[in-house]
Write a structure and sequence with these properties.
With 320 residues, this protein is α/β, with parallel strands linked by helices. It is built from 10 helices and 13 strands.
Length: 320
C-alpha cells in the first residue's frame, strides 16, 4: 500500500534565490507498507519543473498497488513523484532484508561526506555577515543571479576569506553578465559556477573559455540529459528530485563519470529524510550540497548527523 501526505518544515530564516523567497519547506512524505514493514521517502515538488504538491500527489496516487521499484522506472517520468516512491521502496526492501540499502545496491560501506552550506541571496552587507558567521565551514555556496552580483561576491569573500566558494546563479545571468564576471570569479577564488545561463539558452558555454568549471543544474535531469551537456558543462548536479529517485540517480552518476563529467550531488530544501538516500549517491562525488536540514528550524526524528566531517549516512531508524 502506498500512502502520501504533505508536510511543512519551517526554515530557520527566509531563503532567497533569484526566482523568489520561501520561509518553509513544503514536502510530500510517502509510505510504502507491505509484509508488516513500512518504507519511507520524501520529495519536494518544484514549480520550476511544472510540479505542485497536488500534481505530484496525483501521480503517486495513480500508481498500481504492489508496483516494484523496477516497474516504477517506466511508469513515472523523472521527477519528484518517482523520487519519493523509489526511495520508499528502497527503504522497504532494506527493512524486509534486514540489510542497509548500500549493501542491497552493491555499494561500498558509506561514510561522511563534506557538504557545502548555502547562503541565500541578499544585499551585500547581509551576505558578508552571513559569510562571516559561517566562515568556519570549509565550503560555502552562495546564491546569486542578478545583474548586480559583483558587490555580493566581494562581500562574501571578505566575510569568509578561507572558505571554498561555489556560486549558483540559478539561470539568472545573461551571457554578457557571465562574461563580465568570469575574470572576477577567478580573482576571488570561486571554485565552481552552477547554471549561469537559462537551460536551453546555454549554447554559448560551448563557445567560450570556462576558466572556472561550470556545473549543469537546471539543464541536467537523468541519464538521458547527459549527452546534450557535452562541451558546455564540466560538472553535473544530480538531485534525486530531478533524477526521479536513487535507482536512476546511481545510473546517472555512473554514466556521468564514464562520460568525463565531474559529479555534484545537490538537493532541494527538504528534511533529513530527503537527504538520506542522497548521502549514498554522494559517496565519492567531487562536490556535495546536502545542507537542506541545516536550513530548517525543525526536522524529522532521528535526523542526519552533521559535524566537522560533513554529513553522515543515515541511521536505520530514519531511512535505509
Amino acid at each position: 500500500m502506498i500512502r502520501v501526505q504533505s508536510d511543512i518544515f519551517r526554515l530557520a530564516q527566509t531563503f532567497t534565490i533569484s526566482r523568489g523567497s520561501k520561509t518553509e519547506a513544503k514536502v510530500l512524505t510517502v509510505q510504502v507498507t507491505g509484509d508488516g514493514v513500512t518504507g519511507w521517502g520524501e520529495c519536494v515538488p518544484y514549480a520550476r519543473y511544472g510540479e505542485t504538491l497536488d500534481s505530484v500527489t496525483a501521480q503517486i496516487a495513480g500508481l498500481p498497488e504492489g508496483i516494484t521499484r523496477q516497474a516504477l522506472q517506466s511508469t513515472l517520468p523523472p521527477g519528484a513523484a518517482r523520487n519519493a516512491v523509489d526511495c520508499a521502496l528502497w527503504d522497504h526492501e532494506a527493512k524486509l532484508a534486514g540489510q542497509r540499502v548500500w549493501t542491497l545496491a552493491g555499494l561500498p560501506a558509506t561514510g561522511p561526506v563534506m557538504t557545502a552550506f548555502t547562503l541565500s541571496l541578499a544585499e551585500p552587507a547581509a551576505m558578508r555577515d552571513a559569510a562571516a558567521e559561517n566562515a568556519h565551514r570549509p565550503i560555502l555556496k552562495i546564491k546569486l543571479g542578478t545583474p548586480d552580483d559583483m558587490p555580493r561576491l566581494e562581500a562574501v569573500r571578505a566575510g569568509a576569506p578561507q572558505s571554498v566558494i561555489i556560486v549558483d546563479a540559478n539561470e539568472g545571468w545573461t551571457p554578457a553578465v557571465y562574461t563580465d564576471l568570469a575574470p572576477h570569479l577567478i580573482r576571488l577564488g570561486v571554485a565552481l559556477v552552477e547554471q549561469p545561463l537559462p537551460a536551453g539558452q546555454d549554447g554559448m558555454l560551448a563557445e567560450i573559455a570556462r576558466p572556472v568549471p561550470v556545473c549543469a543544474d537546471e539543464s541536467c535531469f537523468d541519464h538521458a540529459s547527459l549527452p546534450d551537456l557535452k562541451g558546455k558543462y564540466d560538472v553535473v548536479n544530480l538531485k534525486l528530485d530531478k533524477t526521479g529517485g536513487l535507482t536512476e540517480g546511481l545510473l546517472t552518476r555512473d554514466l556521468a563519470r564514464q562520460m568525463g563529467y565531474g559529479v555534484m550531488v545537490g538537493c532541494m530544501v527538504g528534511s533529513s529524510l530527503a537527504m538520506a538516500p542522497a548521502v549514498l549517491l554522494a559517496q565519492g562525488a567531487a562536490w556535495t550540497d546536502l545542507d537542506g536540514p541545516l536550513l530548517l528550524s525543525e526536522d524529522r526524528p532521528n535526523p542526519l548527523r552533521y559535524d566537522a566531517e560533513g554529513v553522515h549516512p543515515p541511521d536505520a531508524n530514519l531511512w535505509g
